[in-house]
Structures are given as C-alpha cells and as structure tokens.
Amino acid sequence: MLKFAYIESTFSGIGWIAMVNIHEKTLQDLEFSTVLEQVSEFCITALGNEKTLQIAPFKKREETSLNLILTNEYLSSFYNENRIPNHGFEPIANELKLLGIENTFLETHAFKKIASISLTVNTILLFLKKFKEYYPNLQEHTSNIEITKSIIEEIDRIIDRFGDIKDNASPLFTELRQQINKLKGKINQSFATALNTYHNLEYLDDIRETVVDNKRVLAVKAMYRRKVKGAIMGGSKTGSIVYIEPETTLQQTRELNNLEYEENEEVIRILKELTDFIRPYKPLLSGYQAFLTELDVISAKAKYAKSINAILPDISNDRHLHLREAYHPLLYTSNKKKKEKTFPQTIELDQNNRIIVISGPNAGGKSITLKTVGLLQIMLQSGLLIPVHERSKVFLFDRVISDIGDNQSIENHLSTYSYRLKQMNYFLKKCNKNTLFLIDEFGTGSDPELGGALAETFLEEFYHREAFGIITTHYSNLKILANELPHMQNANMMFDEKTLEPVFKLALGQAGSSFTFEVAQKNGIPYSLINRAKKKIERGKVRFDRTIAKLQKERSKLEKTEQSLKLNERKKQNEAEKLEETNNRIQKKLESYQELYDSNQRLIYLGQKVNDLAENYFNNKQKRELMHELFKLVQIENAKRKKVSVKQQKAIKAKEQQVKKEAEKKVAVIRKKKQAAKKKEALKPPTPKPVLKIGDRVRLEDGRAVGSIDKIEKNKAVVNYGLFTTNVSIDQLELVESKK
Questions:
Q1: DSSP states of 10-50 as a string?
Q2: What span, in angstroms and rounded, lies between the C-alpha atoms of 621 and 392?
Q3: Would you tell me which CATH number, out of the four given (3.40.50.150, 3.30.1370.110, 3.40.630.30, 1.10.1420.10), belongs to the domain 5-21+28-160+278-308?
Q4: DSSP summary character for residue 485
C-alpha cells in the first residue's frame, strides 16, 4: 500500500476494505461517457485519448484517492511557476512487438522514437525529484521508475539528429563511407570530362544530361548514338534523344554498386547490434510508454478541471455529503459556449437527513439537480475533480444506483412501469447504508394511487436500510411521508410566484406544488375547463396542493426579502468602512498639520528673539552681550531637543517636507481659485450707474446718511439731508430709491 502525506490529511478516516461497484446503467443515465469525451479532448496523445475514454469508477477507494490527489497536484502546476514539462510522445507499440521477436531489427526512425520517449521520461522524473515539495505524491508515485541514459547515449552514438547512421558508427562503416565518397568524386569527374568532350563535338541535345535509375547519363542526339561509347539506358518518347552512360564511368559505377551493397549490409549489422542492445530494456520502455500515457490522462483531467473550475473537496468517512454551489459539468460547458448563466445547487445528505424528496412543476430543474449530484459522485469516484465550492464535503459510496428517464425496453417487451419494477427489485437486492440511490419521477407509469402506494413502500424500505438517496416526484403521499419520517426531508424547486417561471434554486425543508392548474392557465387552457377538472378530483387534494403552492410563494417572497436585506447590510457595511477610512485619513492629516503649525510657531518665536537681540545690538553695540544671549538661546532650544539618530533625523525631515509639500499644494490650489475668481470679476462688464433725477433718494458711496436731490447743475447735485444741504459730485452718489 502506497502512503502519501497529503492523502493522509485530506482523506482522513477513509476505510480501504469495501469494494466499489457502480452499475453500467447508472453511467448511462448520468451521461458519464459525454464527460469522458470532453476530458479526452484535452489529451495530446492517441494512447492517452483512448485510455481516457475507458475511465470508469475505481473498484478500490485507495485507487480513487490516489488518482484524485495526483490530478489535484497536476492542476496546481497551472498556478505556479514550476510547470510540469511536456509529456508528448509517439507511440512505440510496434517497436515493442519487434523487440519481443528474436533476430529482428528496428529502423532508424524507430530508434529516434525510443530515444525521444526515454528523454521525455527522464526529464519529467528529474523535474519531479527536483520539485518534490510542490509535487510530493506525483514524485512518490513515479519513484519506482528507473532513470537511464544508456539508451539515449547508445542511440545518439549510432544515429544522428536527421535519422541517418553516423559515419563513425563502426570502423568498417567509416572506411566504406570514405571509399564511396572518393569513388563518387571520380565518377563525377569522369562524367564531366565526357560531357565536355561530346558537347564540344555537338553530339548532345540542349539538355545535355539527365538522371536515369539514379545515374547521371548523357542526352545524346539519336543520329550520333553510335559515336558515343557507353551503355544505352533509354531514350525520349519521340526517339530524338538517347540516354547513354559514358564508358569511362561504367566500371566506376559497378565498383560503387559493390561498395553500396557492402554499406547496406553494414547498416543492417549495426541496426541489429543496436536492437540487441535495446532489447533487454523492453520492459522499461513499455513502462515508459504506460507512464506517459497515464500522465497524459492525469493532465487531461487537470485541464478539464480548470475549464469547469473544479476542485478536490474534503473527503471523509463520516457518511456526510454536502455539495455547496455545485454545477452540472455538461450544462455548465454548454451554457458557457452559449454565454448563458448556469445556476448552481446546494444540497446536503447526512445521518440525520439521508433522503431528499424533490417536488415541484416540470421544467423547474428537479431532474438536473438529481443528475448533478449523481454525476459529480460518479466523476469523483472515477478520479475526476468536481465543480463545487471549496467548503464542500463528500463521501465515497460503495454503490451508486439510478433509475432516470423513460426506460421502455422494446427488445424485452417491457413497458416503462415493468422496467421500473425490475429496477426496484434490483435496488432492493443491492441497497444498503453505503448506497446512494437516485430515482427520477418515482412511482410513475401506473395507476397514481396504486403506483404511489407501492412507491411509498419501496421508499420506506430504502429508509429503514439507512441508504442515502434523492428522488423526484409529483405524488402527494411521498411528500407527506418525507414530512413524517425524521431522517427524510422535502425539497422543492422554486418558482416565481407571478410569472410561474423557474428560478432554478433548490429550497430544502418544504414540498413543492406541481402548479398543475396554474401552469395550464398560463399556457392558455380555458378557465372553464380548468374548473371542470378541479371538480373531478377530491377537494382535500386541491386544498393540499393549493396550500403547498401558497407556502412556496411565501417562501419565495421571504427569499427575495432576505436577499434585499443582505444587500442593504453589505452596502451599509461598505459605507461605514469608507467613512472610517476617510476619518482616519483626516485625523492623520490634522496631526501632520498640527505638527507643521507648532514647528512654524517655534520658528516665528525664534525669529522674534533674534530680531530683539539684533535691535539691542543696534542700540548698544555690545558684542559680548549679543554672543551671550545668542548662546543662551541656543542652549535653551537644544535642551528641548531629543537625541535621535541620523536616520531618524532624515525620516523626520522627510515627513516635514512631505507635509509642507501637501500644504503648499493645497494653498496653491486655493490661490489659483482666488486668482481665477478675481480675473472673472475683472472680466465682467461694469454695471451701468442709474441716471439720477431731482427727488431721488441717494447716499454717498462710503456713507450711511440718506438724502434727497434738490437740484442738479452740470455734474454737481445739491443733496438735502434735512438739517443741512451739500454739493456733491454725481459720480460719488448711490441711488437708494427713485422718485415715484
């Protein structure tokens, strides 16, 4: 058994004995294969893609836990600077088969693939070893894989980066390559001589030469073919040109063929020798391919988790399932492409609340909620991370069973109800305290009363076996049963009470109305027909459904009120925090300004003292007295000072400078405003003075006494103040009241 530090903390208390068994039917019901198809799209190798599509829930919980933690560690690599190296590779399945057969040898391209896969594995293993603190479980999981350089070194010694055998692969091969190169040089030289000779004799066509059977030949005019010595290699379609290999190169070409044959034999010998060297490493190479395939699957899981914001929730053994803000992954990805919102659900199952009965109208999200819980559980038990809130808590079940959708079986001639009864029989055989069952539209397919009674009996049996489960239903008797049993709970999908549109939110603790008649009325069914339908059923049932509908509407109102109150509370909290922050800033500025004011007052005081001393010295010319008083003043000031370091002095000065700058900035702003106001006032056109007439009541511009004008001569006016009169310039008078 492998031990991992992180696993011990995250998966505390998990038992490893029970075997997990999840039926294929459940995987089909929950569309698990579609999830795997989406995950496989993130694979970068064909083998990884193939293996991803074969993912299934693990039989042992230990395997589940290990795969979850490995995926989670790989996911963490996307969010730090130490990214795991690339793991891409070309499959070597055919090469491994050939290595298993004696006296076979691999081609050069096959060795390049082997060297590449070995280098990739070595790089990843060394990386994980170096960054063990970041990826402890990935490193531990791969610690038994051998790192070897001998494969890479031997292949690099024989084959170059272009996939050709190196000249120094063996002494004989080196010698053969040298002889071949020399001979090719001689052949080219001989051919060039013949070409020039016959060209000068004008025996050659305009193209002069060509290549036939990988040999250079002369393009001789047909009329001169007998004059050119050599072997005829063919001719043109028109017959006007004959292709001749010159006699001077024939012998050398035969020698070249012999050398190339020997070279090919040496290549085969070298490849056989290299294959024999690699053959003992076949199990290791097979392990390398399996490791990189597994890493590709883990990488794809991590990339898929990132795309749907999935995490690894807390997993324990206390039979507690709490999914907070859980998203259906298929619905989430579909809506994401359409740029539509996906509504998360929160649901909880524990010892005191083992079964939830979800009711409410169709198209409200009951089945999606049920499928979300089931699919996330299947994904988790298959080593996939799930899109939930980080404070979610999950439990690994031994068995997950489901009955979802219309299951008519044409092959077995079974109706929907017959098939469902067969499923219930299977449930009764397999259901225990470590089982999660999921049933959609429980009890449908038969007479409502009889089918409902049988469904109620089944539900009671599952309850007594302490199984965990979620069902959706429209049956009132099941809602009542959920309300009566202590460890069972009703829930409903909430609807807008005005528009009867779903809000896709699960409300626990209360059954939901089917809104049968309300939805019918909304869809245009005549009211008279709805009334006739109401009369055909029991009054008590209508009242029960009406009461549930009313309660559901009230709950919806309360939900909205609660949300509004929370929003207001958050706004007030934010405002209070902003006010507190502003108050703190103002307080700090006041303190800084007070310090600046005190400093300036001290400087003014010192200036006054120095001014007094200067005035005394000016009058009495007593230097000694002046020096004595100055020294005394300095001593008094120094006595007030505290000893501080140079660093502290710099800090104090810097602070004072900062405060001064701030004050100066504000003063500058105020000055600018005043100057602008003055300019604006100056630009205003002067107010025209009123024309004064005899009898107007006036006063001097800088006076308070009011008099009346008795007489106006030229620019002078005689103003009567009652006790006396005076002559005043009209420009100095202000109008108080015009004569009526």
A1: HTTT----SBPEE-HHHHHHTTHHHHHHHHHTT-SSHHHHH
A2: 91
A3: 1.10.1420.10
A4: S
Q: Do the first three CATH levels of 5-21+28-160+278-308 and 321-567 match, i.e. the same topology?
A: no
DSSP state of 101: S
Residue reference for tokens 């067969």: 422
Strand partners, 230: 246
Whether the CB-CB separation of 32 and 379 falls below 8 Å is answered with yes
Q: Which amino acid is at 161?
A: R
State how far the Cα of 615 lies from the Cα of 325, in Å rounded to an integer: 84
CB contact set of 739 (below 8 Å; sequence gap of 6+): 693, 694, 695, 696, 697
CB 145 within 8 A of CB 121: yes
The structure tokens listed for 334 are 């579909």
| pLDDT one-digit tens code per residue, 443-499 | 665 556 666 788 888 889 989 999 999 998 888 888 888 888 888 988 887 766 566
Q: How far is CA 159 from CA 92, 139, 272, 448, in A?
A: 18, 32, 13, 78
Tokens read off for 470: 């979620």
Q: What is the DSSP pairing of strand 502-508 with strand 230-235? A: unpaired
Please report which helix (H) or strand (E) contains residue 395, including its range: strand 393-395
User: How many C-beta atoms lie closer than 10 Å to residue 5's C-beta?
Assistant: 11
User: What are the residues whose beta carbons fall under 8 Å from the beta carbon of 624, sequence distance 6 or more?
Assistant: none
Provide the angle, in degrees to the nearest 10, between the axes of the packed helices 108-130 and 150-158: 150
C-alpha distance from residue 3 to each of 6, 8, 75, 137, 206 (Å): 9, 8, 21, 9, 81
SS3 714: coil
Q: What's the CATH number for 171-267? A: 1.10.1420.10
User: Residue 504: helix, strand or coil by DSSP?
Assistant: strand
C-alpha to C-alpha distance for 689 and 732, rounded to whole angstroms:
11
| pLDDT digit string, tens, across residues 690-707 | 788 888 888 887 777 888
Other CB atoms within 10 A of residue 269 CB: 15
Task: Please give the structure tokens belonging to residue 132.
Answer: 């063990």
> Do residues 401 and 427 touch, judged by C-beta distance below 8 A?
yes
516, two tokens: 């049968």
| Structure-block tokens of residue 364 | 């409200």
Q: Which one, of 333, 311, 307, 324, lies nearest residue 387 by Cα?
A: 311
pLDDT at 2: 33
d(CA 179, CA 191): 18
Enumerate the β-bridge partners of residue 728.
717
List the beta bridge partners of residue 159: 165
Say what the pLDDT of residue 530 is.
66
- Tell me how far apart the alpha carbons of residues 97 and 99 are, in angstroms, rounded to a whole number: 5
Strand partners, 395: 316
Q: How far apart are CA 728 and CA 648, in angstroms?
A: 70
Length of the chain: 740
Instruction: Count the neighbouring beta carbons within 10 Å of the beta carbon of residue 253.
Output: 18
What number is the average pLDDT over the span 178-200?
85
Q: How many CA atoms lie within 13 A of 282 on its CB side?
A: 15
Instruction: With cut-offs at 50, 70 and 90, classify the pLDDT of residue 47.
Output: very high
321-567 has which fold? Rossmann fold (3.40.50)
Helix (H, G, I), strand (E, B) or coil at 436: strand
pTM: 0.66
Q: Which residues contact 610 (CB under 8 A, 6 or more apart)?
A: 630, 633
Q: Is the sign of the CA dihedral 458, 459, 465, 468 positive or negative? A: positive
Instruction: Give domain limits for the chain.
Output: 5-21+28-160+278-308, 171-267, 321-567, 697-737
Give the C-alpha distances (Å, rounded to integers) separating 573 from 300, 562, 563, 579: 43, 16, 15, 10
Side-chain half-sphere of 455: how many Cα atoms within 13 Å?
30
Structure tokens at 525: 């069914």
